[in-house]
Amino acid sequence: xxxxxxxxxxxxxxxxxxxxxxxxxxxxxxxxxxxxxxxxxxxxxxxxxxxxxxxxxxxxxxxxxxxxxxxxxxxxxxxxxxxxxxxxxxxxxxxxxxxxxxxxxxxxxxxxxxxxxxxxxxxxxxxxxxxxxxxxxxxxxxxxxxxxxxxxxxxxxxxxxxxxxxxxxxxxxxxxxxxxxxxxxxxxxxxxxxxxxxxxxxxxxxxxxxxxxxxxxxxxxxxxxxxxxxxxxxxxxxxxxxxxxxxxxxxxxxxxxxxxxxxxxxxxxxxxxxxxxxxxxxxxxxxxxxxxxxxxxxxxxxxxxxxxxxxxxxxxxxxxxxxxxxxxxxxxxxxxxxxxxxxxxxxxxxxxxxxxxxxxxxxxxxxxxxxxxxxxxxxxxxxxxxxxxxxxxxxxxxxxxxxxxxxxx
Length: 409
Known about the structure:
Its EC number is 1.14.12.17. There is one protein chain. By secondary structure, this protein is of the alpha/beta class. The protein has helices spanning 4-19, 21-35, 45-50, 52-66, 75-88, 95-110, 116-146, 227-230, 236-244, 281-293, 315-320, 355-361, 375-387; strands at residues 155-164, 169-176, 190-194, 205-208, 218-223, 250-257, 272-277, 300-306, 328-334, 349-350, 368-372, 395-398. It folds into 3 domains: 4-146, Globins (Globin-like); 155-257, Elongation Factor Tu (Ef-tu), domain 3; 267-398, Rossmann fold (3-Layer(aba) Sandwich), CATH 3.40.50.80. 40% of the residues lie in helices and 18% in strands. A hairpin with a 4-residue loop joins strand 1 and strand 2. The chain is globular and about 70 Å long.
């Protein structure tokens, strides 16, 4: 527990820390990578270069300080961090490294304003949060390793199949190289791909499992990221997977992790709405296929947005959800359809997912909503759901990359 004195000091310095949070976190990463380069392998350097990771950390620090006297409010954030750390293999011994460089960064940026008393209070606050995270991560590690087929760290998998899903998405079917069993996982979780890239030192990448649990393989469906699409350099690992990883090749994987999940055993018949934008379909398809495979009576509504048929991935699988006992309604929306996309029935709507479309096509008053896609797409969906009166407890979304607040549009 934090002392009353520490709580008071943290409350007093929160505005100043918030004002300098971005500078502090950038300085923190610079110091840590220089002083302890061994931890660099845990971080996606593309997120460092884009500023996403420092911005996400700045938000997390401010959220922690703002809730210093109400730590229970941080439960979801702690779970997200713990799951991510376990996917990467972060251990308790790494926390002192982070703490040292964070305190040094605060001193660097705030100068004389960071008195010994303040640094001591921040150190105490960091220690409490570290203990909470370490405790939760220990539970996750134990759970991962104790289940049949489970593991921690890395395990070799062989590419059993490689399937083109669209012009820009390829699926990789992966089986254990040791011939052993696969662990179960919760639909929506991801695995971590460790690639020893031939030209550029890199870091692990998280990819959602795009198929349901209980099969003889893991499947990831990877979008080829290009500078023209993202406004950033070509995706180093996504392009390497597309171009250089083939059937028979071996890839090291971290175990299934992640907090954006659905548990089919807990479904009570309440309608489920999945809203996918682009490659955001991957965790949502795993969820929907799991519900359908369980032959539940839970109604499913699946809205999938794509530019057109050339980049529309998993089309047949989404439409195939309606083939079983579970009642399923699917709608495909293209915003830039190709010639013939509409007349051939490849899409049901032309345009964007709008408030009217969601209101007309989904049971707004009672459904749980799961959505995933580009940040602007998710921000738009969040605004729409809020305007329709969907309570926050019925809204669930997934970020690909460091967790950030959705910016309203």
